[in-house]
Specification:
single chain; about 100 residues; two-stranded parallel ribbon; 2 helices; about 25% helix; about 25% strand
């Protein structure tokens, strides 16, 4: 999650703003990645519900008028197990299809 938020920031600042329709973060836990930049239209952030150590809180939009942020708590799943969750994968694929 940290890397894609940094990439979104880079795309905002390089040669004019590059819009990102969907940014999916999976339990990102860095201290500088909670604020989603204005060039992101939608951010879905999946948070593991069983690992309190890795959870520093949900994401928020720098500008809520431009960016919709949805924080989804996945109960009883540890941080490192989130990418293997079928429900999470199906949700991401569904959101991608909506954009196509």
């Amino acid at each position: 999650g940290d890397v894609v938020v940094d990439l979104a920031r880079d795309l905002q600042s390089k040669d004019g703003e590059k819009e990102i329709d969907l940014l999916v973060t999976i339990d990102s836990f860095g201290f500088n990645n909670d604020i989603i930049p204005e060039n992101v239209v939608n951010n879905i952030n999946f948070i593991g519900g069983s690992d309190v150590l890795f959870n520093d809180g949900g994401n928020m939009a720098k500008n809520p008028e431009l960016t919709k942020v949805e924080n989804v708590l996945v109960d009883d799943v540890a941080h490192e197990d989130l990418p293997d969750e079928w429900d999470l994968q199906e949700r991401v694929i569904s959101e991608i299809y909506k954009l196509l």
